Amino acid sequence: MNQLILWSLLIIPWFSLLFMDTTKLRRFFPVALLVTVINTLFYQAASSKWS
Q1: Which of 8, 22, 27, 40 is 20 to 30 Å from 2 by CA-CA measure?
Q2: What is the pLDDT of residue 11?
Q3: In this structure, what is the dihedral angle of CA atoms 31, 36, 39, 40, given to the nearest 10 degrees?
Q4: CB neighbours of 25 closer than 8 A, spacing ≥ 6?
Q5: What pLDDT does residue 51 have?
Q6: Tell me: the pLDDT tens digits for 1-51?
Q7: What is the reported pLDDT for 46?
Q8: Could you tell me if 17 and 25 are in contact, meaning their C-beta atoms sit under 8 angstroms apart?
Q9: DSSP result, 1-51
Q10: 8, 15 Cβ separation under 8 angstroms
Q11: Among 47, 27, 28, residue whose Cα is nearest residue 36
Q12: CA-to-CA distance for 13 and 28, rounded, in angstroms?
């Protein structure tokens, strides 16, 4: 049951993109990519031996 919940939390938000207006999608998509890259860099820095 936990796996089902975790997979649904990953997949269900992607379906909301189908219902978004394309102008809003174009407006927020670059910011979402930037935040993803920054979060990945923070995770990599936190999990390395820098601290």
Answers
A1: 40
A2: 93
A3: -150
A4: 17
A5: 54
A6: 899 999 999 999 889 888 889 998 899 899 999 999 999 999 988 887 765
A7: 85
A8: yes
A9: -HHHHHHHHHHHHHHHHHHS-HHHHHHHHHHHHHHHHHHHHHHHHHHSTT-
A10: no
A11: 28
A12: 14
pTM, rounded to two decimals: 0.58
Across 12-51, b (16+ Cβ under 10 Å) vs e yields eeeeeeeeeeeeeeeeeeeeeeeeeeeeeeeeeeeeeeee
Q: Which two tokens stand for residue 20?
A: 């978004």
d(CA 3, CA 34): 28
The pLDDT, as a whole number, for residue 23 is: 92
